């Protein structure tokens, strides 16, 4: 339910971004952020249904980064998407690494 509510609210984020930058700059914002927003929310809903909470958090993080990048305008949205996606994937990898309980030394 939270994922669907987030998707509903983020439609208005795009409206604010387009109003702030002008409708003629839509081509710089939408291709960089909308696919990650859509896939992030759909993947988070799927992962939440499977109760895979680390993956759900990572995909929601991707969607939030996409929404934030849409508000920054066409110049910085590519930079913020790159940095945000990198941080989301590194955080997911670090969490997965912490989940493993294997010892380096074999008994």
Structure description:
With 107 residues, this protein is an all-alpha fold. The chain has one domain. The protein has helices at 2-21, 26-49, 53-72, 77-99. Helix 1 runs parallel beside helix 3, helix 2 packs antiparallel against helix 3 and helix 3 runs antiparallel to helix 4. The N and C termini lie far apart (46 Å).
SSE blueprint and pairings:
Layout: H1 2-21, H2 26-49, H3 53-72, H4 77-99
Helix pairs in contact: 1-2, 1-3, 2-3, 3-4
Q: Could you list some keywords that capture this structure?
A:
81% helix; 4 helices; mainly alpha; 107 residues; single chain
Distance between the termini: 46 Å
How many extended strands?
0
Describe the largest sheet.
none
Order of helices and strands: HHHH
Residue fraction in strands? under 5%
What general outline do the C-alpha atoms trace? flat
Structural class: mainly alpha
Radius of gyration: 16 Å
Q: How many helical stretches? A: 4
What percent of the residues sit in helical stretches (DSSP H or I)? over 70%
The average pLDDT is 80
Could you say how many structural domains there are in total? 1
Detail the poorly predicted runs: none
